[in-house]
Amino acid sequence: MKIVLIGPTYPFRGGIAHYTTLLCKALRKEHEVKFISFKRQYPKLLFPGKSDRDPSKNPLKIEGVDYLIDSINPLTWITAAQAIRDFIPEKIIIPWWVSFWIPQFWSILTIIKRKLKAEIVIICHNVIEHESNFLKKYATKAILSKADRLITHSRAEAFKLKELLGNDINVISGFLPTYKDVTGKRYSKESARKKLRISGNILLFFGLIREYKGLSILLDALPMVVREKEVILLVVGEFWGDKQKYFEQIHRNQIFNNVRIVDKYVPNEEIGLYFSAADIVVQPYLSATGSAVCQLAYGFDRPVIATNVGSLQEVIQDGINGRIVEPNNSQALAKAILESLEPHSLIVLSDNAAETKEKFSWENMAVIVTGMLSEGKQGTT
Q1: pLDDT tens digit string along 5-16?
Q2: Does domain 2-177+361-378 have CATH number 3.40.50.2000?
Q3: Is CATH 3.40.50.2000 correct for 180-359?
Q4: Helices (H), the chain
Q5: Taking the model in full, what pTM does it have?
Q6: Burial class (CB in 10 A: 0-12, 13-18, 19+), 300
Q7: Strands 259-262 and 280-283
Q8: Are 285 and 301 spatial neighbours (Cβ–Cβ below 8 Å)?
Q9: Cα 229 from Cα 59, distance rounded (Å)
Q10: β-strands 2-6, 32-40: how paired?
Q11: Alpha carbons 285 and 291: distance in angstroms, whole number
Q12: Interior angle at CA 288, CA 155 and CA 168, nearest 5
């Protein structure tokens, strides 16, 4: 099958770039794939982080990428559309995650739909982005309506799509595959802790620090945890927004000796260091769709404590490979952490987490994306 895949890849950083790259690798095992990516992803003024470029010494790369699209140059959108038409694909696959890409993708799809009969498949990482408004929702509806088939990573997101577009749409709820292949060196727990100079019970909060991820809830839960156990919380990721308020909260709660902050985007070769050192990964999200962090945790055999939002509750089995608690509830979160850190519980949760990663392969996701799995097995909602 001839497929066009559009999306970010190296030298751009982040979960969407990793996702698109790993999906392309899986698709190319069975299909002819033309991978079209970006010359420029975001203008510097619009990117909230320090850089959208991957600083990894061992980045996730793939050969055969056509870097055609400049996000702020409409002429390149036309060039990309022409390249797609010349390739004559049977399917065109596009990721969807933020409304910034509405003009570019809308233009490309409008041009190619005039000449091609290819199926348009949109993979929704976020149906509605986390910081949204009425205008963004309206524009999102316009772009997603161009899809012949839509794929989400959770049933909850599939229902959001139906609320947005109506019940007659062709939507499939898949899953977020494992990200274990992104990481570089792997460490034993002992060597990772020695390298980081930490000991005791280790919790990990990993990824970009944004308001909806609920770090403040975890910082309020931590005093209840440290009264009963010796615990270090590793907060590892680049802050997007006001980080001073978190520092003030740490001092107000008198947990400054129990929190280590690594304020940076973590290159691939360092990811394993933090996950290997941790006992448990904590995701106290206030809202969510899917989470690459959760799949990273399972890739390192680490259980996850998270809230029942988005697809997290579809991946985490409470009491089996992690714990699920209500969002915005620091007491429930503290209780789950303390119970999970009990030696027998931690062994059981960790063993089951190791088995979980085998269920979420990129090969299985590629089959769903191409539509080659029977409807009853795709998880259609």
Answers
A1: 999 999 998 889
A2: yes
A3: yes
A4: 15-27, 74-87, 102-113, 134-144, 155-165, 189-196, 215-226, 244-252, 268-277, 292-299, 312-315, 330-340, 343-356, 362-370, 375-378
A5: 0.74
A6: buried
A7: unpaired
A8: no
A9: 37
A10: parallel
A11: 10
A12: 35
